[in-house]
Specification:
Order of helices and strands: EEHHEEEHEHEEEE
Radius of gyration: 15 Å
CATH topology: Aminopeptidase
Shape: globular
């Protein structure tokens, strides 16, 4: 998928390749200012829990990354985390385009919902809702835990959500 950012530069959103690994680690560490989320991504990959992993590429290389991983839920669902954009490219639409493409691919692959822990202001623009996640039991439940149906509605309104084991060690 190609789109233009605010500056008119072409942003290419594509699947992460094995050769992108070092660049993805760098993007994540720059975005979060620590190594925990990069280790999370590496573990999700190694343990087979990464389902969709995309990068955002500009002329100067990989500047963004998003991952959707398996979680246990009452229906086929994914966790969106982490989403990372280098600080010098934040606020330019790279993160939004990554999320949009990841959700599009999840829908096309038959997943029924996505859960995220994050800023409601940012995630509402994609259709994530706090009220849809309230009935689900999760260690991440609270005012920043949201759900998004990938069809007309979520197939269940309550149950237990369990993220992949790699999330347990996230600091």
């Amino acid at each position: 998928m190609q789109a233009r950012g605010e500056s008119g530069r072409k942003i290419i959103i594509r699947p992460e390749l094995p050769s992108d690994s070092a660049a993805v680690v760098k993007v994540i560490e720059q975005a979060f200012g620590r190594k925990d989320e990069a280790r999370l991504v590496e573990r999700l990959r190694a343990e087979g829990d990464a389902v969709i992993s995309l990068v955002g590429v500009l002329e100067d290389g990989v500047v963004g990354h998003v991952m959707l991983s398996r979680l246990t839920a009452p229906f086929p669902a994914l966790a969106l985390a982490p989403i990372s954009v280098t600080p010098d490219h934040q606020g330019r639409g790279v993160g939004s385009r990554l999320v949009e493409e990841a959700l599009k691919q999840a829908r096309a692959r038959g997943w029924e919902g996505v859960f995220v822990l994050g800023d409601p202001v940012f995630y509402r623009r994609f259709g994530f809702r706090l009220d849809l996640a309230v009935g689900f039991s999760s260690p991440y439940a609270g005012p920043h835990f949201m759900a998004l149906p990938l069809g007309q509605s979520l197939p269940a309104s309550s149950g237990t959500i369990a993220h992949a084991p790699a999330f347990v060690d996230l600091g």
